[in-house]
Amino acid sequence: MRKVLITALLLVLALGCCAHADDLRIGACIYRFNDAFMLRFRTAMAEEAGKAGAKIEFADGQDSQITQDEQIDKFIADGVSVLVVNPVDRMTSQNIIDKAKAANIPVVFINREPTPEMLASYERAYYVGAKAEESGTEAGELIAEYFKAHPEADKNKDGKIQFILLKGQNGHQDMILRSKFSVQAIKDAGFEPVELASAIANWDKLEAMKIMNGFVMSIGPEVIEAVIANNDEMALGAVEALKIVDYNMGNKDAYIPVVGVDANASALDAMDKGEMLGTVMNDADNQGISSVRLAVALASGKDTSTIGYPITDGKYIWIPYQKVTRGEKQ
Ligand code: BGC
Ligand code: CA
Asked: What global pTM score does this model have?
């Protein structure tokens, strides 16, 4: 009798406190499914959830914070164990944190960083991402390294680098900091950067192509010495626009170094063909895996120090960036 009671008690304790991996449900909100980098991220998350035996459901915010807020309400009402959120507008994350807190559900933000104050307002709120400034610095270094190796890239021989900047969605930390630090890295390498033009192309290839096409027509490809894009999709859009005027098609005399960020397969392909100079690897695999491991640990009451990724300042998992080039191909 006593044994039965103890067993029953242990069972209640075990089940009562936390979700087990096999009945653990992750509600994952993605700002927009139609994003090449977030597709890589989602794929890694789904795979890791499978390995952990956790259920994961993805919701497509379709680039609307209103839609995403509804999806969050629904996940909470459905009783998910934990939320993983890639906010549409990171500056409204406090609202999401308040909702998670009221429901006592842990929340792991990914890719779009809430402010430290927001994260501090809930002990079960975390962020998994990569340091935006690092990617900016590395992208700028790629351009500077190219100019050191190829003095002829300074077409007008003025010792300065005349560049075009294609920016991601307004307000995204990766848009703000990549833009700033890539230009800074060019300066730090001893070159004077001169911005010929810049525009927001919202991380999007087609938008970037149209914008770049306009710049090529108004400025002239022979005047442009470099293109810095906040991500690979926009870099590829720029490459498409350059190809229209027979640039970046393998002829060294008609080439403009273009850099992006992410290391998506299509960018690596373009680099192999000599159409694009380089990129900075945004490690979707490790961001996806670590965010799911953290979510599972939080929801099951497991020690977060066992997930294989260090947690900084009690709140952050930072995955490093890495420069990628194809050597002397260009
Ligand atoms: C990536 C972009 C992506 C964006 C989405 C960035 O970190 O570099 O490719 O569109 O995140 O939020
Ligand atoms: Ca120049």
From this structure: 0.93
